[in-house]
Specification:
16 strands; alpha+beta; 2 domains; TATA-Binding Protein; 3-stranded antiparallel beta sheet; Arc Repressor Mutant, subunit A; 7-stranded antiparallel beta sheet
């Protein structure tokens, strides 16, 4: 099975198609490949291979009429144009909240696996999906939209909508489970933080641990003093976040 997946990850046509692997191309990948002295698989095995690729977060099936899969490791390198960016102002009729997962090391494959696990919310414009090697843009209908991006050892998550906390909680739990399933060594070596609503030079001046904010809120305190600006910051937008014990 590892060899079969390897053939997909080495397939140039799939890479050039931004990860789209049509069913009609499977025979070329798994039988008519160019790897000398390597096994050649017959078509009766392809449904089984596809299911295993889905199970191990290598790919996911596109809508049935497409008759194709999307291989997340072959998505484009460059971030596409997105409906909105976190650096831009939030529309007056919307709310935006942010969360950062700060990790002690960079887990390889985090973004491709996250793309697969959140594919129910993927966005397609034209023939292109709004995801790239470092992130993805998602849509949960009436529950809002999200922009996720890995920046070094930090995984940034932004959700926007009328009530964005629900979608943020889904994404937080998905990310937690992904880390637990694939990098058990990271247990107790990553933290969820919230960007400070205070601004310095137009940017958040720092972050604070989500768990600490939850404890403050449980005690009836929705404020915390910003250590950089020496002002009191309001954290009402935290309401709705959850943390699994």
């Amino acid at each position: 099975m590892a060899k079969a997946i390897g053939f997909v990850l080495e397939d140039r046509a799939t890479a050039e198609s931004e990860g789209i692997l049509p069913d009609k191309h499977l025979y070329e990948v798994w039988h008519d490949h160019q790897f000398k002295d390597e096994p050649r698989y017959t078509s009766d095995l392809y449904p089984f291979f596809l299911r295993l690729m889905e199970k191990y977060d290598v790919s996911y099936r596109l809508p049935e009429e497409r008759k194709a899969s999307l291989v997340a490791q072959h998505v484009p390198q460059i971030r596409p144009e997105l409906p909105w960016l976190p650096e831009k102002e939030t529309p007056q009729d919307q709310r935006r909240i942010a969360m950062i997962c700060a990790m002690e090391e960079d887990p390889p494959g985090l973004v491709p696996w996250m793309i697969v696990r959140t594919h129910d919310y993927s966005v397609e414009e034209g023939n292109h999906h709004l995801h790239w090697q470092k992130g993805m843009f998602l849509d949960h209908g009436t529950h809002g939209q999200a922009m996720l991006e890995q920046r070094g050892r930090e995984f940034h998550v932004y959700t926007q909508g009328d009530w964005p906390q629900y979608f943020m909680t889904i994404l937080q739990h998905t990310l937690e489970k992904l880390i637990k399933d694939n990098w058990p060594g990271l247990a107790d070596r990553y933290r969820f933080t919230i960007p400070c609503p205070g601004k310095k030079d137009g940017r958040p001046c720092g972050t604070i641990y989500m768990k600490a904010l939850q404890e403050f809120l449980a005690e009836g305190d929705a404020t915390v003093r910003c250590q950089k600006l020496s002002v009191i910051c309001q954290f009402q937008l935290l309401m709705g976040f959850e943390e699994r014990r």
